[in-house]
Specification:
It contains 14 helices and 19 strands. The chain has three domains: 117 residues, PAS domain (Beta-Lactamase); 158 residues, Heat Shock Protein 90, CATH 3.30.565.10; 124 residues, Response regulator (Rossmann fold), CATH 3.40.50. Strands 1, 2, 3, 4, 5 and 6 form a six-stranded antiparallel beta sheet that branches. A five-stranded mixed beta sheet has the order 8-10-11-13-12. By secondary structure, it is of the alpha/beta class. The longest helix has 52 residues. Bound molecules: adenosine-5'-diphosphate. The site of adenosine-5'-diphosphate has 22 residues, from helix 8 and helix 9.
Length: 514
Amino acid sequence: MSDVAALSQQLLHCSPDALVAVDARGRIRFANDTVRIVFGHVPDDLIGQPIDVLLPERFRARHAAHLAEFHEAPQSREMGSRVADLYARRADGSEFPVGIRLAPFEWQGERFVAAAIRDATERRAVRDALVAARAEAERANSAKSRFLATASHDLRQPMQTIRLLNAAMRRLASGCPDIIELLHREELAIEGATRLLDGLLDVSRLESGAIQPQLDEVPLAAVFADLQREFDSVATAKALRLEFAEIGVTLSTDRLLFTQLLQNLIGNALKYTERGAIRVTARLDAEHLEIGVEDTGIGIPADKLERIFDEYYQVDRVGAPRLGVGLGLAIVREVSRILGYPVTVRSTVGEGTRVVVRVPRQALRPDRSNTAHAAAPIAGGAARGRLVLVEDNPSVRSATELYLTVAGHSVLGAASPGEALALAPQLRPGDLLLADYRLGTDMTGIDLLHRLRETLGWELPAVLLSGDLDSLLRVVKAPIPACRFLGKPVDTGALTAAIAELGDALVAADGTGG
Ligand code: ADP
C-alpha cells in the first residue's frame, strides 16, 4: 500500500465524525473506529446489521421510508434539516442528539450512502439555551411594551382631569398673581408629564408592531408648512432662525408617521441649540430624497452617537439641565424602521448636529404640491351656542364642565350617548357637540354625531376627543364636515380654538351672526 493510501485509510478510521456506509437495503457495510467512541459499538460487529441499530426505536419505522426516498434522489445533504431534532442510540440503549451529513456513492455497481455522524449534545445544549434566552427576552420585552402602553394610556384620563382643573383655576385666579404663578408652574409640570406619557405610548405602540404605515400622496411642502407653523413660536422665543427648504416633491408615505419623525428631529434641534439657526434641507440624488435637519447647537460627543437612539438615553452634560425624557430618538428609530427611511447623524461638539433621513426614490411621486394641503389656520373668536358635553367618566366630565363654564360657555352635560340623544329636542343651531370618540358603549362619538345630525336635520358642529388620535385618524376615511378631532389629554388652548373656529364657521355660513 502506498503511503498516501495508508494515510487515507488511517484518516478514514480516525475521522472526527463516526462514518458508516449503508447499502440500498439499509445494511451497514462499513463503520470506522470513531463509531466506537460515539456509539460504543465495536465497528466490525456492526457490519451486516441494519442501520436501525443506531436509531432510537421510535424512529425506525419512518427511517426505512426516508432511506428509500434518499435512494430515489440521492444527493449530498444534511439529514433532517427540515426536522428540528435528530437522535441516535448508543450500544447501551441511551439516546443522544446528532448531526448527520449524507453523501451518495457507487461502488462496484452498488449504491451506497455514506453517513458522517457527530454527537451534537453540546451544540444542542447551547442552542437550546440561546433559544430559551431569546424567548425570555422577547417575552420580557413584549410584557414591557404592553405594560407601558396600558399604563400610559390609563394615566391620560386623570392627567386630563388635572389639566382641565388647572386651566379652570388659572381663569378663576385672575387678579392673584402669586396663585397664577403657582398654577403656571403646575401647568409646566403637567405638560412635562403629558409629554412623557405621549412618548411612552408612542414608543410602545410603534415597538409592538401594531402600526402599519398608511400610504398617502403627501407633498413635502405641505409637511414643511405644518412643521413651520408648529415650531415657529419656539424658534422665535429662543431667537433662533428656523428655515425650511423649498422643494416640489410629493412622497408616497404615511403622513402622520413621517411628520412625527421630523417633529422629533426638529424638536431636538431647537432644544439643544442656543444661538444660530435650524435648517431643514431637502436634496434629490440618484437614489434618494435626502432630508437634513441641521442645527448650530451643542453637538453630540462621537462616543455617544451610537446610544442616542436607545430608549431613555440622554447625553450627560455636566451642570446642564435635562431637557427631554430620552424617548424622541427612540421614536425616530422605530418610525425609520417602519417606513424604511434610514436615519444617520453627524455631529461636532460645540458646532452642531446634522441628522439625515434618506427617503428611497421609489417613495417619490409626480409633484402635486401646488394643491393646497396645509390645514386651515385656526381662527379666533368665541362660540355663541351651548356645548353638549358627553363624557362617561364623572370626574373628567365635571372638570371639563368647570373649565368650559369658566371659559364662558354654557354646558349641557350627558353621561352617555342615550342622554345626549335625549337632549336633541332642546338643541338649536349654534350649539356644539363635545364628545369622546370612545364612549364606553357600542356607539362611538362619530356614530352619536351622525345620529344627532339625522334627528336634528341640520349639521351640528362637533369636537371629538380621542386618547389615541393617530389611530382614530387612520380609521376616519373621509373628513367629516364641521367636525374637529383633538387628542387627549386635551390641550385647553386647542379646545377653545376649535370651539371658536366651529362657532365662527357657523356664523359665517348662516350670514346672520346668530
Ligand atoms: P431627549 O428627550 O432627551 O431629547 P432624545 O431621544 O430625543 O431624548 O435624544 C437623546 C439624547 O440625544 C438627548 O438627550 C441629547 O443629549 C442628544 N441629542 C439629540 N438630538 C440632539 C441635537 N440635535 N443636538 C445635541 N444633542 C442631541
